[in-house]
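= Protein in question =
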Amino acid sequence: MPKITVNDEPRTFPDPLTVADLLSHLGKDANKLAVEVNRDLVPRLDHAARALKEGDAVEIVTLVGGGAALDPPLDKPLKVGKFVFKSRLFTGTGKYPSYGLMQQCMDASGCEVTTVAVRRERLIDKDGKSILDFLDLKRLTILPNTAGCFSADDAIRHARLARELLTNLENPGADWVKLECLADKRTLLPDPIDTLKATEQLVKDGFTVLVYTSDDPVLAKRLKEAGAASVMPAGSPIGSGQGVLNPNNIRICLEYLKENDPDYPVIVDAGVGTASDVSAAMELGFDGVLLNTAIASARDPLRMAWAMRYATDAGRLAYLAGRIPKRLYANASSPTEGMIASSESK
């Protein structure tokens, strides 16, 4: 009975013995293995003819790895006040060359919420077409936006007009508003004093307020205390496409807003330019993304809409999964257990 080493383990088998006999004794499927004898590869077709003798060293190897589920793990829905959504991507309606393309991009993005500014020029285009004719009001929740308002009084007035309009359309968006109170036309950054003032009044009026703000953690906290259902820090100036410029401030905003309230929705509003910006924002811990220019002004808006959809999902999944620690040195990803014996060591 020859003594043979199999994967560095001495074993005794009955004689005579071939590679095929050995695999049969071990209960292995030859089609799923590769075999060496004394460091010489033995092809599958030669297994039955290759005899084994005392002292032979046999290596039997297979492939290792993992698989993936067909569907991603379930995630809890996004909740903003009484509103509940599966998609975490909110889109805008501005800057598209046509309402038809806007409609296609919304479908591609998978969004359930879209923002509309309350102005005469936004409701009827140069051809006399109404934006409302291109919005699926049964599928979409309209989020009225006080875009272009530079005072609390103007923003409050626009919000009340929007509520009347959407109530007449029987759209659930009548109950909420995306609040913007801008400070100046060059930066389009929010006016912190009027933003806070308008938030307080609109909350008193019964609105679910989603409020656009800067990445100032203290102001973010004050807005939540004033009753904002969601605080929406800008990643960078509106339409700039610079992505999240100050991730450290954003992390502090998230810490302040979610302290003892982990499900409080924080949505990045403004500044993203491409899919990687969206993924990076979601990986920071944002609960959602609101964007417009990044899709509407892309070279191919329809492709970008698909990209933003997947980027939002990818960033959310990565955040929930938890990234690995960053290391200075390498850390082998392939398992070392079961390695083929080496003649040298480093």
Remarks:
- The chain has two domains: 3-61, 78-321.
- The domain at 3-61 is CATH 3.10.20.30 (Ubiquitin-like (UB roll)).
- The radius of gyration is 30 Å.
- The first strand starts at residue 3 and ends at 6.
